[in-house]
């Protein structure tokens, strides 16, 4: 059973405002939910149409109609769960850190979180106008990776002033990333989908880097921010850990 | 004005069956449409709500209501165009070729076409069960890149039997891509989102390659096929063209 007030709360969690107020977020589908539980994210409630999934007091059996009301997906899955947003530790100046300046698309953020997880990047620092990582689309796209990468939202100028690491920015007119000697520990800044890194932030960085375009035509307009992040992480990791 | 039969034809083009029958595909929005025209794709009709865009006989002014009927997008843009699907030249055995084995997601195919364009890959060879490149979602995602990369749909076993180039496949248990000496000209095969490269195809390839995972946890499940393609193209290009 799911109460009216629970339904109201859960549907409200589609909006960041209510996630911030309540400290909860929603995940859907047995695979994503199991990954988050395995990673130690605290489960508040689980609602499922599958009796066999009910193994604890805060698990509830619901019918398909009730589940559909809770779901954010076009085609509802078999379960919906409410989790507590974990508290982040403070930002550290170690390892490789990815910084996002106003990345707006949930799919891009989700892909970047998965990339961080793959390449052992433990923290992602986002400007306050970057899309929220507990947005349902991000949660569904990242699965367990969201629990393994600490995502911080903060003032980027302040973060960049305080970091002791070398800072790099991805842009169209920097040094060729393939020719640079890249350090093991660094801060890599990726910019907004349409406008790249803002001027204020770019002026604070130690070095601009560019992925060169190949071929005759050279009319390709730009790389997507997620694919550019993939190539940056691949270059930093292969340069330093071989 | 847009006739009833035109409306019917255009909305039918959302389905591959009708694109194959008619040889037409649809693009939306002034930016995408201008890119395709600039690249020499033959325009059949343009429908727009913007009088200033009407500069030829096959351009038609329509009202917003009529445009909305033609549009595949949730929020219709200001213009919808019908283009002729260009005839491909035959597949060549030169340069770097990307091969897709059953990639199903239009967003992934769109991102891969943009990557091919960026890295000067002129042909993309797809299994017949790969998503159609004239699917409206792919067209919107790739913009002009779709006109600069020749996308072929063919039998992969037949293509691989006939190619004279060295063939590589992306998988989870291959050689470390960062340690391999990679040739300038090659065939790179990327697999399906959930299942990777099929066994039949994998057995035909010269070498398996893997992007190594980093970090302590190593629990990241896999990389998305588009981000893996980004890293593969980056590695082949940076290894051979420096």
From TrEMBL, chains A, B:
Belongs to the class IV-like SAM-binding methyltransferase superfamily. RNA methyltransferase TrmH family. Gene3D superfamilies: 3.30.1330.30, 3.40.1280.10. Keywords: Methyltransferase, Transferase. InterPro entries: Alpha/beta_knot_MTases, MRM3-like_sub_bind, Ribosomal_eL30-like_sf, rRNA_Methyltransferase, SpoU_MeTrfase, tRNA_m1G_MTases_N. GO terms for biological process: methylation; RNA processing. The lineage of its organism: Bacteria, Pseudomonadati, Bacteroidota, Flavobacteriia, Flavobacteriales. This is RNA methyltransferase. GO terms for molecular function: RNA binding; RNA methyltransferase activity. The keyword Thylakoid does not apply. Signal peptide: none annotated. Residues 6-79 form the MRM3-like substrate binding domain. It comes from the Bacteria. Residues 96-233 form the tRNA/rRNA methyltransferase SpoU type domain. CDD domains: SpoU-like_RNA-MTase.
């Amino acid at each position: 059973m799911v109460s009216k007030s629970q339904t109201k709360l859960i549907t409200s969690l589609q909006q960041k405002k209510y996630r911030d107020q309540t400290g909860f977020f929603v995940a859907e589908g047995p695979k994503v939910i199991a990954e988050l539980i395995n990673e130690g994210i605290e489960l508040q409630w689980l609602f499922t149409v599958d009796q066999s999934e009910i193994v604890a007091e805060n698990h509830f059996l619901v019918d398909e109609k009730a589940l559909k009301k809770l779901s954010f997906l076009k085609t509802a899955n078999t379960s919906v769960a409410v989790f507590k947003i974990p508290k982040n530790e403070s930002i550290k100046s170690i390892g490789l850190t990815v910084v996002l300046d106003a990345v707006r698309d949930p799919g891009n953020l989700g892909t970047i979180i998965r990339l961080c997880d793959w390449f052992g990047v433990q923290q992602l620092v986002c400007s306050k106008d970057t899309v929220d990582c507990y947005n349902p689309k991000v949660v569904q796209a990242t699965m367990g990776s969201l629990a393994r990468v600490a995502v911080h939202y903060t003032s980027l100028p302040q973060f960049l002033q305080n970091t002791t690491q070398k800072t790099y920015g991805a842009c169209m007119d920097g040094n060729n990333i393939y020719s640079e000697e890249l350090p093991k520990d660094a801060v890599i800044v990726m910019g907004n989908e349409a406008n790249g890194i803002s001027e204020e932030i770019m002026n604070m960085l130690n070095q601009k880097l560019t992925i060169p375009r190949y071929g005759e035509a050279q009319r390709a307009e730009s790389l997507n921010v997620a694919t550019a992040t993939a190539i940056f992480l691949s270059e930093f990791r292969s340069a330093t850990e071989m």
